[in-house]
UniProtKB/TrEMBL annotation:
The keyword Cell membrane does not apply. SMART domains: ANK. ANK repeats lie at residues 11-43. This is Uncharacterized protein. It comes from Aegilops tauschii subsp. strangulata. Gene3D superfamilies: Ankyrin repeat-containing domain. The keyword Repeat applies.
Amino acid sequence: MDANQVRQDKNGCTPLHWAVIRGSLEVCTLLVHAGTKQELTLRDRGGFTPLQLAADKGQRHLSNILVSFLLELLLYL
C-alpha cells in the first residue's frame, strides 16, 4: 500500500473525519497540516466531508480551520 494513500474505515471515515467527530482541535490541526487536499474533500459513507461534519455538529472552531486550509490551497493552485 502506498504510504500517501488516504485510509478510510468501513464507514468511509478518515482520521480527519474522526478528529472532527470527536471535536479535537489539536488533532484536526495536526492532520490538516500533515494531510493532503484529497483528505479534505473525501466523503464518508453518509456523504459528508470533514468540513460538512464540523458545520453539522456546530463546531465553528474546526470549521474555521478547515475553511482556512481549503482557501489556502485554492490560492496556490
